[in-house]
Amino acid sequence: MSDASDTRQRLVSAAEQLFRVQGYSGTGLKQLTAEARAPWGSLYHFFPAGKAALGAEAIRYAGQLYAEGWRRAFERGETAGEAVDRVFRAEVRILEGSDYRNGCPIASTTLDVASTDEGLRLACDAAFSLWIETIMNGLEAHGAPPQATRPLAIFMIATLEGAIVLARAAKDPSPLIESARLVRDMVDRAAEDWA
Questions:
Q1: What DSSP letter does each residue of 162-189 carry, written as one string?
Q2: 59-112 tens-digit pLDDT
Q3: Residue 181 neighbours by CB under 8 Å, 6+ apart
Q4: What is the phi-psi region of residue 99: left when phi exceeds 0, alpha when psi lies from -120 to 50, beta otherwise?
Q5: Residue 58 burial (CB < 10 Å; 0-12/13-18/19+)?
Q6: If pLDDT is split at 50, 70 and 90, which confidence band does 4 have?
Q7: What is the reported pLDDT for 2?
Q8: In terms of Cα–Cα distance, which of 161, 140, 152 is closest to 187?
Q9: Alpha-carbon distance 110 to 4, whole Å?
């Protein structure tokens, strides 16, 4: 990787990490370049449209990163229910390991600016759509009929994101642990009809 592409990726990675902790609006450009160990002018060199362009790229990056996590969970899980449980429990570890600071960069950005910045709203929508598609593919690989996968995938994402918010607010993993159990039970029951 060249120095230029390395600097660009550091900016994107730093933005993704900062959005997890403090959201899009709470992330300043000076902090972002400092976290990325990048010269101030490099941000506008790589993202001439400024913070919003970098933000959209960070959201795309996070979308791919999390989609890969879902894909691996479905590959490694013996059942679809186990795959879902893996993802929820991974979020418990992330929250506990960060003292409940590391949330979802896409959810936080959506809440921050989806109603005021169309480019960022579209990037967030695309990331959530990628996750839904990834989950649908994982469910189908575990025997779910195609018509059953979309509603279940949407339910999983909505439950996971809501549980993360509740866990962060309470500084308690219970919302994720309890949600994981209920979602896994639901997926396991649904899977009985897939055979």
A1: HHHHHHHHHT-SHHHHHHHHHHHHHHHH
A2: 999 999 999 999 999 999 999 999 999 999 999 999 999 999 999 999 999 999
A3: none
A4: left
A5: buried
A6: low
A7: 60
A8: 152
A9: 29
pLDDT tens-digit series, residues 132-151: 999 999 999 999 999 999 99
Cα separation of 126 and 5, whole Å?
A: 24
- Cβ contact 132:115 at 8 Å: no
pTM metric for this prediction: 0.93
- Name residue, tokens 């639901």: 186
Domain that holds residue 65: 59-192
Residue 38 resides in a domain: no
Give me 40's structure tokens: 């101030």
Tokens 């909505």 -> residue: 158
Q: Other C-beta atoms within 10 Å of 4: how many?
A: 11
- Is 169 inside a domain boundary? yes
176 located within any domain = yes
List the CATH number of the domain containing 154. 1.10.357.10
Contacts of 64 (CB under 8 A, 6+ apart): 130
Burial 27-57 (b: 16+ CB within 10 A, else e): beeeebbebbebeeebbeebbeeebbbbbbb
How many other CB atoms sit within 10 Å of the CB of residue 97?
Answer: 10
Q: How many domains does the chain have?
A: 1
